[in-house]
Amino acid sequence: MSLLFESAIGNFDLSSAALHSPADETFEPVRDDPIPIDGIVEYASYHDQLAHPEKDDWIVIPLHSHNSAALSGEYLAFTEHALHGDVFIYDDGDDYASVDQDTFAVSSLANRVRFWHSDYAPDDPPSYFDSPIAEREPPRNPLSDDNDTDSFFDELESFVQAEMDAQRDENRAKAAASTPEALRAEGFGAIPSLASLGHPEDGVYRFRIDDEQVDRQHDTYRVVQSEFRIFEGNEVLLHPPSKEHSPDAFPIPATVDAIEGLTVSLAIDWYTIENRSAVGAFLRQKRRDFALTQLLNPVPYERELAAITRVRERDDQRALLTGDTAVTFGDTAGVKSSQQDVELNQEQELAVSCALLADHLFCIHGPPGTGKTRTLVEVVRRSVEAGDDVLVCADSNQAVDNLVAGSSTPTETDDRSLHAHAQHGAGEFVLRRVNASRSSNEVVGTQYATCDGLADVVAATNSSAATLEREFDVLVLDEATQATCTASCIPLARADKVILAGDHKQLPPFSATEEPPESAAGLSLFEHLYADGGIYEGVGVQLRTQYRMHRDIAWFPNSRFYDRALRQGRDVTALEDRPAFVGYDIGGSEETIDHSKRNDAEVRLVAHIVGELLADADLCPSEIGVITPYTAQANAIRTKLARHLDSGRDITVDTIDSFQGSEKVAIVISLVRSNTTGETGFLGRPLDGPRRLNVAMTRAQRFCAIVGDWYTLRSSADSTGEDTDLYDDLYSFLENTGRLRQVEPEFIPVPK
Length: 752
Prior knowledge:
Elements: H1 3-11, E1 18-19, H2 37-45, E2 59-64, E3 71-81, E4 85-91, E5 96-100, H3 101-105, E6 136-137, H4 146-177, H5 180-185, E7 190-196, E8 205-209, H6 223-228, E9 235-239, E10 252-260, E11 263-268, H7 276-283, E12 290-296, H8 299-313, H9 315-322, E13 327-328, H10 346-357, E14 361-365, H11 372-385, E15 390-394, H12 397-404, E16 431-433, H13 442-447, E17 457-461, E18 472-477, H14 485-492, E19 495-502, H15 525-529, E20 540-542, E21 545-546, H16 551-561, E22 567-568, E23 581-586, E24 591-593, E25 596-598, H17 600-616, E26 624-628, H18 631-644, E27 652-655, H19 656-659, E28 664-670, H20 689-697, E29 700-708, H21 710-714, H22 726-736, E30 740-743
Helix pairs in contact: 4-8, 8-14, 10-11, 17-18
């Protein structure tokens, strides 16, 4: 029923307690609002220690003191009487007597069980209550009034509209700088060649795709969607056959009205076109070699706007997001279920217990390697055992599949995944993965493409949750710090309770309008509710035992980002004959490639380090990862590894943003920036620059190498505020512990 009642039950000794004998109390009504006795009795009924040893039909209800939650050493007994119904039994001096539940609930004696309900939390907790979470957590930073509340939801809607405008501008610029053929080759929505069919029908212009563009091995049904990534409802740009021989208004905006086989029907956005007559006359002629490029897929944004409206109109969720209610802990899921994973550590058990007890919200802060996924799987298993329907979401398909399948293969099951306990594993519940057939994970794609019956657990991306036509008791939102408030509203609108899990010390959500996001709308729901300055600041549990990294790798992130709160959960050994953590200081030079950055000296040094790891450390390519902030550097490193090493193509090379959520035995980080002016770009931004370094370093298990020009990094002209000394501190740590290597580019044994 509540955290306090759970603690009281644990401290209540029935063997030394006495059945209450009323003295001054009477059962005359003294309360206008009855104490919610049903919930207290139900909660007590799940505890064996409250079963009376001599009366099989008695449920013992401990009494607390008159004005505090201190245990009194007395109790009442609840039973279902054959004649009188639900009654409470007490000692009247000569024999047992009873009072019916309705009379008891408004009596003065009911005041002595009121603190067992989360709605009546005492001002001062009793001495036996040692939970880090209070019985009832009021908002720490609520929005102050109704105007602020309305403004918050208005801001969410404005943010989505701004994101749409920013995406249109980005796609319009992309189309202007490239060709439809090149865009299609990159996987962007584009049809390079269309023939106009002339006069419109009902104001809609029809175009047909040239047959030679289509792979005839495939059926024409949905060929436009699958081959050209253009869908009904998309906003598009229509490009003319010739810019020189067409009206100046081209390319013109339109909306895909319908797709039938190879025919695409467009509704032209005439309101944005000045010379409408000239454009109309041009379109009414049958012409070849038109082209189409995507301007916007409005579906994700429309889903967010609809969800914001839905959350805004729900009193419970509106109050939760604005701080107009307290966070309480009265759910019975914890006592309706039993511990499944007996190897959870203390913080993980506490996180699970609080998540199950929470009525509407709980947050789990999971720094890298602390077993966040394992903890969430236990929450899901126990919620299902308690009879709850569970929606499991994350912002990306990769994150959803990590919860569903983990590292499972068709022949081996990851015991820490939902897959291990679902219908293809232990059979504890039925699991459905929305759009499983599109998953790149082999286990997910083959085993969860279909689902018989109504699933107990449904897994989906935040956006795909909008397609579900059912409600859920519990939402488990993983990687909650990577999704904006607006995206998180989609699954939130479909659940009564939400468990948020993530790490607000890692990368913030991506935003097309803000980089990094600063407004509440652009922040994650996790930060809005839990992080410093959040509505319910600190109301959650931080997992503190990390199992991934060697202690030398973990030392700097732990000190810098986690206030030294993390401790080692196991002994992770370093690679033989090399330190677990090492830095390389190299002076190369950077160059700009298509708005990105590349540093060839660092490319060569990374290739040399990777070669040593393969040759001397007895690692296989799949155990090594290379991380860099810049796409151009990632491309250059891939090319160099492929040319320089026999197995170089098998090394994972990616940007920091793409690597978040992954881990490797060995990680090599290339920071790229090298110039005389101290320009470090987004590495030096105070809001997300430190988070990028944290993500990169904490991907490593046994070896981490950081390659950079430490002169540039330490003299950053971009940094402001408390994080200006980030790279200076890291440099000092490396140098003072003998882990810094000076490298001259001309001596790197890798050809240019």
